[in-house]
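Final report, Chapter 2: Outcomes

The project's central promise was a pipeline that accepts a single protein chain and returns its three-dimensional structure in a standardized token representation, suitable for archiving and comparison. That pipeline is now operational. To close this chapter, we reproduce one record exactly as it appears in the project archive, with the input sequence first and the structure output second.
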Amino acid sequence: MATESSSHAMSGTGPDPRRWGILGVVIVAQLMIVLDASIVTIALPSAQHSLHISTANRQWVITAYTLAFGGLLLLGGRIADFSGRKRMFVVGLLGFAGASALGGLAVDQSMLFAARALQGAFAALMAPAALSILTITFQHDAKERAQAFGAYGAVSGAGGAIGVLLGGVLTGYASWRWCLLVNVPIAILASIGAVVVVHESRTGGSTRYDVPGAVLSTLGLVSLVYGFTKADSDGWGATVTVVLLVVAAVLLAGFVFLETRTSHPLLPLRVVRDRNRGGAFLASLLTGAGLFAMFVFLSYYLQSVLHYSPLKAGLAFLPFAFGIILAAGASTGLVPRIGPRIPMTVGLLVAAGGLAWLTQIGVHSDFWVHVAPQEILMSMGLGLAFPAFSSTALIRISDRDAGVASALVNTTQQIGGSLGTALLNTLAATATASYLLSRGVAATQAGVVHGFAVAFAVGAGLLALGAVVSAVLISAGPSEVSTGENAAVAAVA
């Protein structure tokens, strides 16, 4: 049986006098993790031009980070629990700073891709450690715990929007490289703060790690993404594409088989076998797949087609940010009253409608007519659905699995985003090439917009499929959601 030890817990039973300082350090780290998935979105056209990155490979700037982060998140959580949360938090911060510096100084695309993957790996170590530190620190007062997690959730929700805005400012007034270099001083200061104010804590018991599971799942996902990328340059029927996709299928099947045999699985399959939880994870995966690429393509559309500056393009995402914050706030109070099925299903349908509406963009479209209303519709739908994902993931979950179930929502969205970005980038490039083949190079801008529209249409289909999954598989009522939330509190308190 695992036991919990903490230097502060040994010294007293009252609230930690340093708790608000600890909250500040954790929030800075979480903001850095969340915004780094989006900060390079606005900078991507400039980075692509500077490092001569091909259209097929540009998605690796996004997917290298999200793949490493999502693929290693569960393993990172276990390492932090057993090796010391403060220690791994500081290691994650310093490693993140080093990887950011490497990316900011990249001389070619390979160096940038490797740096982004390293950022994701260290984020996978830092993020679960930060959440565990926050949970242990605010375990005495329910009101203070709610305030702390409210601040943490607000930063997590707004981080993506802050990222695209900050990316626009840094790219417009400095260089795309500062979208990565800005992390270095922030991470170093946060690590110093962590050394000063955070107490060490760890979980006792067996320290066996499912490293083979992490290797199989991560390599399988990388092979799948690389297969999607090669489909753009070599074709879906090319030998290299088929081999990569087959290897991905074998590795991922091997991961599932291994998880049924190992005594310390990275992903206990009992967590996903429940109908409600499995439905929430699948819908979350489809949402990430349909949503993440939208930011990339819309950024290119605003800068390359409408000729927005990086700063103006960053500001253009503000309607999305405001919409998701407002809708998520409303949904948080709605789910405990009516259950997760309706908010999740309706929310994803509304988001799918907004993304489908975005296919009407053209070479000379007006932002306030053809982009802003669609952003607002998408964000309202997603804001409605997101709290339901988290609540449903914890329904009927045991205390020992609550941490894994909570992390899986983030993991599935990151992995879905990786796969979706790679697949939709390939589909967009293929659609553009076909359009130019039939219309000629004189229609280059129209061909590029056509490729974006195809990607938006497929993304809308993925969100709609997520809505169908929610409608069919989610059946939990309000009382079960409350039970799930109580399980989460019991597991981390």
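Archive annotation: Residues 483-493 have pLDDT under 50 and may be disordered.
This record, like all others produced under the grant, will remain available to the consortium after the project formally closes.
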